[in-house]
Amino acid sequence: MKIKFLGAARTVTGSCFVIETDKTRFAIDCGMHQGSNQIEKRNLEITPYEPKKIEFFIITHAHIDHSGLLPRMVQNGFHGPIYATEPTGDLLKILLLDSAHIQEVEATGRNKRLQRSGMKADAAPLYMTKDAEAVMPLVKTRKYDEMFSPAPGISIRFQDAGHILGAAIVELFIEENGETVKLVFSGDIGRPNQLLMKDPSSVHQADFLFMESTYGNRNHKGEQESLEELAEAVRYSYNNGEKVIIPAFAVERTQEILYSLHLLMREGKLPKDMPVYLDSPLAIKATEIFRRFKSYLDRETQILLRAGEDPLRLPNLKMSTSTADSIRINETQEPAIVISASGMCNAGRIKHHLRHNLWRPGASVVFVGFQAEGTPGRKIVDGAKNIRIFNEDIAVAAKVFTINGFSAHAGQNQLLEWLKDFQTKDMQVFLVHGELSAQEHLASLIRDQFGLTVTIPEYLEEIQLKTGRQFEEFKVPAAATTGVNLPPLFADLKTKLDDVSGKMGKLQTLSASQQAEIAELIKQAAVNIDRIKNRS
Ligand SMILES: [Zn+2]
Ligand SMILES: [Zn+2]
Fold first, then answer.
1. Cβ(161)–Cβ(188) below 8 Å
2. CATH classification of 223-406, choosing from 3.30.750.24, 3.40.50.300, 3.40.50.10890, 3.40.50.2300?
3. Spacing, Cα 372 to ligand 2 middle (Å)
4. Percent of the chain topping pLDDT 90
5. Helices H / strands E in the chain, number of each
């Protein structure tokens, strides 16, 4: 069989693995590519997917980086079934409609800009609401642990990945030429002890494992420590009469933050006169879906619910559904907590809250989720002094908190712990869904601790798998043959560096604060150079 990596290869977003056997062609996940312009261009390149030739999709979970291109597939001729768990089916409905709405709004914005600059307004959205709606009738739900066979020679079983509501690990049995090969796609692996979610299920056997590696190079802080940090942000901005802005993914992270605020309230660390705004219609709908699937929540939550305590409800929680509600939040001067989407600050209402608060000393911005390269969220986390929002430069004066203990992803040690449960000695591991530096780190730990073969596939790489054999590289990614001409860019950078180093004497005469700013810029440049070095 052949496998083509169409996303989440040496990057986090765009998960999609197309599998071709002698009888069928199908794909695991269909994620949107998110991040830099270079990466997002991949959303337009539909040819490698060949949607008309995909017989069915298996979706591990509803996050857009795993499902966001489904409408685009349907728009381009895919009409087969889409298999997912029941909660994933419900979450897909709200997430894909929201995604289509974002695409439409962005295209309208682009067209307005084109018109103003005297150009033809011909920007089209990636897909529209009708395309997202066309996905829904194709979704077929399956339960955890239930074996099903979507095509001849293919058997599949979902296991709880403990990541978000309904997230699955996919066990895939492929029978070819009288032999059965087992592939496991980890999907996104949850963090054990996560609020609301059960711990990820153990899997014991696989010939080939495709494993996520988002946090392959770091561990998360403890849960208690993360709660303390959240309490500190609340205290800081409350004492300064300012707001706490929390960019959060609508699904799971928002609910986990609500739960955490509920815990802080129980400890008396959430001031009674500090309202909490849930400013995201999508997050409000997602919270309702969490309530609907109680049996998917962990034991601790179910005990609380049975005792009549709803951890997703706060006495001072205000849901803002309309745009007017949202605008009103920024007209008030009182201290408040605002939870809004998108989680990486690249779309949605959160951009308005950042524009109103990021420049205010005393305010705070609390990052509680992964920030992909190239997103405004990542820039703020990396220490940018200014951020461009709605074509305006906004200074970063608010206190920035990065709390990674709320992650819905397993940290490095937790990934290795999950891997320990596999009993197959000659299993081959492919690391996906991670940035290269994190993947290389994790790969070397896996080789050292388990003696397994680890490969880090590239975008558009195609491989051939056979049991008990080393995989054979089938086709090198097209990116390698039609690459960007890098040497002139590098020569230009060198000239600029020489130019600046000639001016060092003059720079040393500037004020202390200006020098500190320059030091910060140099550090950021060094980080980027290191990133390039790590890829060579
Ligand atoms: Zn996910
Ligand atoms: Zn993901």
1. yes
2. 3.40.50.10890
3. 11
4. 75
5. 17, 23
CATH for 2-218+408-480 is 3.60.15.10
472 conformational bin, left if phi > 0, alpha if psi -120 to 50, beta if neither = beta
Where does the pLDDT of residue 425 fall: very low under 50, low under 70, confident under 90, or very high at 90 and above? confident
The predicted model scores a pTM of: 0.83
Measuring CA to CA, which residue among 516, 507, 429, 501 is closest to residue 216? 429
168 CA → ligand 2 middle, Å? 12
Confidence of residue 174 (pLDDT cuts 50, 70, 90): very high
| Residue 329 · residue 338 · CB < 8 Å | yes
Q: Which ligand is nearest to the CA of 191?
A: 1
Q: Distance, CA 407 to ligand 1 centroid (Å)?
A: 10
3-state secondary structure of 418: helix
Confidence at residue 178, expressed as pLDDT on a 0 to 100 scale? 86
| Token pair in block for residue 519 | 């030091």
First vs last C-alpha separation in the chain: 30
Q: Dump pLDDT digits (tens) for 37-74.
A: 888 999 999 999 999 999 999 999 999 999 999 999 99
